[in-house]
Design goal:
single chain; mainly alpha; 9 helices; about 0% strand; disordered N terminus; disordered C terminus
Length: about 190
């Protein structure tokens, strides 16, 4: 358990946390809700900001804050998914019944056929490919921000996004991988 001295923050640290929270809470909440059931998403969102509170001195400034938060959220969501899978396996063994997957809110909201095919096609991609495409399409991050959030190089983001788009287009029977958001910029900030 942390002592009061470890939890206490200076007024400037408190102000920095409030700025980060106020500015980015909605984006992080939405990120978590697109990846987890509502009860888990709320907990994950709170956990992200607990981490930020504890590490407020290491939170970058300016345009680097949101990718940093997405990196924390990505790890938090992965932990929640692992816990959910473990809980599901345990419940399954205890009740000797098959645990069914419950579709997330994005699948319930989608009305158009192409969107349904894209969601179906995502299931056939690796977790990393899915996360790259979600960060690009749902969170609307630049390739540089994705690289920072995922801890990989910009070149790796560029090539992996291209491969993931093509793979998704094949899996979802899309005419073109252009149905997904792309960066039209070459070099520099993406």
């Amino acid at each position: 358990m942390e002592s009061e001295e470890q939890v206490a923050q200076s007024p400037s640290q408190h102000a920095k946390f409030r700025r980060v929270y106020t500015t980015h809470h909605a984006a992080i909440r939405d990120y978590c809700f697109r990846r987890l059931p509502p009860a888990d998403a709320n907990d994950a969102t709170a956990e992200v900001f607990v981490v930020v509170w504890r590490k407020i001195d290491t939170v970058p400034a300016g345009d680097r804050v949101l990718p940093y938060l997405y990196g924390i959220a990505r790890n938090t969501v992965a932990n929640a998914r692992r816990s959910h899978r473990r809980r599901g396996r345990l419940d399954g063994r205890a009740s000797a019944q098959h645990v069914e997957f419950v579709e997330g809110p994005e699948a319930q909201v989608v009305q158009r056929d192409e969107a349904r095919r894209i969601l179906g096609g995502l299931e056939h991609l690796s977790e990393t490919e899915q996360e790259l495409l979600r960060l690009k399409a749902w969170e609307q991050l630049s390739n540089a921000q994705i690289a920072e959030a995922m801890g990989i190089s910009l070149r790796a983001v560029d090539s992996r996004l291209t491969r993931a788009r093509k793979k998704l287009a094949r899996r979802a029977n899309l005419a073109s991988p252009l149905a997904l958001p792309r960066s039209s910029e070459k070099g520099g900030e993406r």
